[in-house]
Design goal:
Shape: flat
Distance between the termini: 61 Å
Number of helices: 5
Strand content: under 5%
Length: 94
């Protein structure tokens, strides 16, 4: 297997997300696949499907989004309340 190295330059070097996307796009163009196909392959390599690997991978990803019970939530109701409080503060001049 050949190893291709992509080095970010210019404005992309200052933005890690843009640099990451450009690396994906370069690999997609080199391999004549879509960026989505390159991402799927990376996920498959990171989370191999052996002995329930797919469900373990899903569990790992979901665990990253878990919040402790005492942490503030970010559901629709909490976001709406936070938005309303921010608007009230602007109206009241706080």
């Amino acid at each position: 297997m050949l190893l291709y190295v992509y080095v970010c330059a210019g404005a992309a070097a200052a933005d890690p997300a843009r640099c990451r996307y450009e690396r994906l796009a370069a690999e997609a163009e080199r391999s004549r696949r879509s960026v989505a196909a390159v991402i799927r392959e990376a996920i498959d390599l990171r989370f191999p499907d052996t002995d329930g690997g797919a469900s373990a991978a899903a569990g790992s990803l979901l665990a990253l989004t878990a919040t402790p019970d005492d942490a503030p939530g970010e559901g629709p109701a909490e976001l709406q309340d936070a938005y309303a409080a921010a608007l009230d503060a602007k109206v009241d001049g706080r």
